Amino acid sequence: MDTNKMNFRRGFAVFIAFSLLSYGSTQAQKKEKAPSPLSAGKEGKLIYTPDSLGNRIPDFSYAGYMAGERAIPAVPVKITVPLKKGDATLRIQSAIDYVSALKPGNDGIRGAVLLDKGIYEIAGSLTIRTSGVVLRGSGMGRDGTILTGTGKDRETLITIKGKNNRTVDSPVKISSPYVPVNSASLEVSEPARFKAGDVVIIHRPSTQQWIDKLGTAHFGGGITDLGWKPGERDVDWDRRIISVKGATITFDAPLTTALDIKYGGGTVSKYQWEGRISQNGVENLQCRSEYDTGNPKDEDHRWMAVVMENVQDAWVRQVTFEHFAGSAVAVLETAKRVTVEDCKSLDPVSEIGGQRRYTFYTSGQQTLFQRCYAEYGYHDFSVGFCAAGPNAFVQCESHLPYSFSGTIDSWASGVLFDVVNVEAQALSYLNRGQDAQGAGWSAANSVFWQCSASRIDCFAPPTANNWAFGCWAQFSGDGYWESSNEHVQPRSLYYAQLS
After folding, report:
1. Strand ranges (DSSP E) for 95-211?
2. Rounded-to-integer distance, Cα 401 and Cα 424, Å
3. Considering only Cβ atoms within 10 Å of each terminal Cβ, which end of the chain, N or C, has fewer?
4. Using one digit for the tens of pLDDT, what is the confidence trace for 254-289?
5. What is the pairing mode between strands 421-422 and 397-399?
6. What is the tens place of the pLDDT at every residue in 196-218?
7. Contact 63, 368 (CB under 8 A)
């Protein structure tokens, strides 16, 4: 072959290679230019880009006390319990009952029980059963108020608990063929049955078609006992109707999982709940559990410090927790619009394993944990079974936990971890398969924002998505990732949405 032909072929090969590289670069640039699902525009205003069905990243600012619309109040003191030696359970409970009998103000608040500085021994359990009652100490440090749960009983130290006497009317079918994530309105077949001010349950069924789509009917091994069954993973949002116009009802907080007629659609039902309480809090003190100091895995002592159920618009703030085996704060399924802030859990005492050291935990909805610290826990910041959301953990830190933080059971939707740092463990949204008795897909339509951990799992389930922005970790998952190992603006998604 002569020299001219060889040079031509070499030149042509270089041209083809360069063209292919240019084409690949152009396609990559086109892909990179696809709009982000969330970005900051002029003056920091958030810009959301929905998908083809109208689903978008949820608004998490509805989490917390009064859905973030009002600050936690400074409740006036109505009675003080002086410090005395011996068991203080009866004296403090009597003070709680005294304030519970007072007439509430227009804001629903009755008053606060104030505890002096020093150590109060609690051989039993303290319970707030009435709206508008707050338990307050005189400081969360060692020189403040300390409630010490004595004895070898696993009894909860403080419970805020209304009556579980909710009654639900017959359901009305949702007529909208598709209601996207973050929607706060939908159409119903019988709008005349609703009016502004009604409280409702918006119900999303877990049908066989949806379970088959997720692939959670069977997790392998030829055994289906742990597979999902129809009706076992339903989601129920607790909302208040703002307006009714034609067939459209609008409610006070967005939905966190889409309602699709292909997978059963949904229903809306009015309810009445006279026994649910509100405007309750625990604040400015330390909760401590006695334990066998010779046994670092002792479990014959207090498990739970504060448990909340059948309650809304409540809070725990400025509380230190020491030596509990289970949870510092557990917000149960029947609780909503709860804020837990400026709390820390120190030196838990228990075996290391399931149902232990779930430090700050919620299975409720519209729960906000902010500026909380935990050490040596298990699931320090965790969301439980089919939690309806939105729920948010903001500016929290987990020091040397034994397991991951994140969604720990089935299909928690609308979860935000925002500026959360987990040292030497993971943050996780994934399909847990057979783990946790067949948890399967644990998170849907949930966000990691500017978080750090040893590993971050962000997987996208069928029919939903999960997103991670500006996170620092080893990465795993096929969810949406943006600006990994980089800082993003705004610094906090929750506070940007709240503003």
Report:
1. 111-115, 118-122, 126-128, 133-136, 145-149, 158-161, 167-168, 172-173, 178-179, 185-187, 199-204
2. 7
3. N
4. 999 999 999 999 999 999 999 999 999 999 999 999
5. parallel
6. 999 999 999 999 999 999 999 99
7. yes
- Per the listing, tokens 């030196």 go with 347
Radius of gyration of the chain (CA): 26
Q: Identity (one letter) of the amino acid at 247?
A: A
User: Is-contact 136 285, C-beta < 8 A?
Assistant: yes
Tell me if 422 sits within 8 A of 453, measured CB to CB: yes
Q: Which amino acid is at 109?
A: I
* Tokens describing residue 108: 């629903």
Tokens of 286: 């330390």
Q: Please tell me the distance from the alpha carbon of residue 96 to that of residue 319, in angstroms, as a whole number.
A: 18
- Taking phi first (over 0 means left), then psi (-120 to 50 degrees means alpha), and beta for anything else, what does residue 180 get? beta
Distance CA 160, CA 423 (A): 32
pLDDT digit string, tens, across residues 154-208 = 999 999 999 999 999 999 999 999 999 999 999 999 999 999 999 999 999 999 9
